[in-house]
């Protein structure tokens, strides 16, 4: 079963315009959606077909010139209602913080200080450089929603880096 995030992204893409699964996958790639939602190419294909099977989208096979046939998907009224419900549900969820490095922090006291500092410094550098990378991407996004999402991501990376720096100082003192 797809996560609600994947369904929202697929149905939202179909609200924008009818498209093939390939175009949808390319749109998600171009918008850098995979940076903040885990959705693979096979997942796009699998889920758009499932959404058709469930009546949230319709697929029409088309052939343009010499190109091979492709299925172009459109959202149904049932799909629009599902999209609205999913948006309401997702907006009502409590915020989730799920950083992959949390087990490192939970066990940092089990390594020597030099190793601990190196681990934390690596995390700080990774988060700061990622924030700078994301900052560089933001101007390339035409859509306000995309820019705002990426700004939130960049700010979060900076917030984590600053928190880690304070944590390191509290744990080990000035180095």
UniProtKB/TrEMBL annotation:
It comes from the Bacteria. SUPFAM superfamilies: Winged helix' DNA-binding domain. InterPro entries: Metal_resp_DNA-bind_regulator, Tscrpt_reg_PadR_N, WH-like_DNA-bd_sf, WH_DNA-bd_sf. Residues 10-84 form the Transcription regulator PadR N-terminal domain. This is PadR family transcriptional regulator.
């Amino acid at each position: 079963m797809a996560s609600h995030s994947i369904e929202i992204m697929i149905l939202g893409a179909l609200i924008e315009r009818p498209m093939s699964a390939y175009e949808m996958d390319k749109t998600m790639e171009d918008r850098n959606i995979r940076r903040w939602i885990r959705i693979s190419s096979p997942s796009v294909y699998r889920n758009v077909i499932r959404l058709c099977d469930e009546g949230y989208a319709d697929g029409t096979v088309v052939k343009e010139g010499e190109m091979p046939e492709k299925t172009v998907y459109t959202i149904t009224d049932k799909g629009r209602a599902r999209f609205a419900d999913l948006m309401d549900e997702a907006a009502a969820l409590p915020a989730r913080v799920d950083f992959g490095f949390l087990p490192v922090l939970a066990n940092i006291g089990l390594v020597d200080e030099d190793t601990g500092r190196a681990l934390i410094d690596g995390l700080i550098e990774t988060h700061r450089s990622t924030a700078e990378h994301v900052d560089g991407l933001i101007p390339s996004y035409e859509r306000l929603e995309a820019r705002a999402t990426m700004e939130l991501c960049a700010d979060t990376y900076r917030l984590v880096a600053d928190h880690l720096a304070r944590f390191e100082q509290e744990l080990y003192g000035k180095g």
